Give the backbone structure.
Amino acid sequence: MNIWQHQLEQAGLAPIHAKVLAGERLSFDDGLQLYSTPQLPLLGYLANIVRERKNGNVAWWVRNQHVNYTNVCNKGCLFCSFYARPKDDPRAYVMSPEQAAHKVSNYGDVPITEVHVVGGVNPRLPYSYYIELLQAIKAARPKAHIKAFTMVEIDQIVRCSKKSAEEVFEDLKAAGLDALPGGGAEVMSERVHEDLFAAKPNAARWLELAQAAHRCGLKSNATLLYGHVEQTREKVEHFVRLREVQDHSLANTSGGFLTFIPLSWHPEKTALESLPAPTGVEDLREIAVARLMLDNFPHIKSFWIMNSAPVTQSALWFGADDVDGTIMEYEIIRDPTRDRKQVLTSRQLVEMIVEAGRDAIERDPLYNIISRGFENVRDAQSVEQVLVDAHADESQPQANLQIMRRDEIVTAAQGQKNRAFEKGLIGAEAVGAEHR
Ligand code: SF4
């Protein structure tokens, strides 16, 4: 018996280990046990077995750009700091399709393979707006995949179209939609839904729309927003419902879920900002449990902008095989200490992965290989830097993009955790784990 087997026995995790080695599905109770074990390294060990079985030593990254076309939203989710009210909010903005295309064109010399398009649920936008938005972005970036609209936005688009969900997906595909991102379900619990985001579609509707997308041949992602008021049982239920839908989609459609992304909640500037942010230990646990429970999801992502770059490096040994990408522009959360947009260059992303001991592979949105290691990245003063300098947001000069220095890769989540540590809300052990 090796040291790991001995420790798994001691921790009562040997039966789960046996199931993992045999490739058997873990049960709801197994999920509860994974959340309750204090043995975080064992959790990482178990998750890494599945991670390496599915993706070997590869860590995927993508050269992408985010377009947040509007922040106007009538849903009022209590955990959200992004939205502006439809009436009288000075922060409100809506990009015209031409403005969105212009943003994409700004990075015309960067070989972006994915444009990620999401926004608020803006009741004033007509159906034609969404079609024209996709068409404009596709015209500006014909070779890039467009991953657009959470199921919450899709619900709104279906409502204003007066068509079926399937007809809407076919229209969106014809306009340029290639895949869908994963947000909007948050935690699949009626209790949390009622308490925090009652105006949004519930879990049943989110899953119904995801299945409709899969029937139309579309790939989509799924997320879990954790670290606020959710309970462990609700998170395990979330995984069970997702993998049941995935079973059905894989058996009956050409679509399905591609990637699961645990999203570390950021309390800053939300209605719940008195709550502490999730710690690095929680972030790693969520990644690991997701990898173990979602046996039919090909990929688990640690989104560096939410988890911080250092936690993401560790997450690559706790079940994650994807770190997301270069981002270019991201409005959903910002670094609260400097209120600026965040970006990593392609070289920084690859360095981050290589330093963690994984093989960096650039992918397109469908996980086709674009480049390996450093073969397609440029120096720190790369074209991305030049373009960021040249095309920073002229309307909001105080919020311009800046490339972070290597020693500066401490994003919003990390800062939040450091402040929680300084206030004594979390222990040194938790903060230390982030830097392992
Ligand atoms: S999370 Fe999405 S739906 Fe909820 S308020 Fe924010 S932008 Fe609107």
In short: The first helix runs from residue 3 to 10.
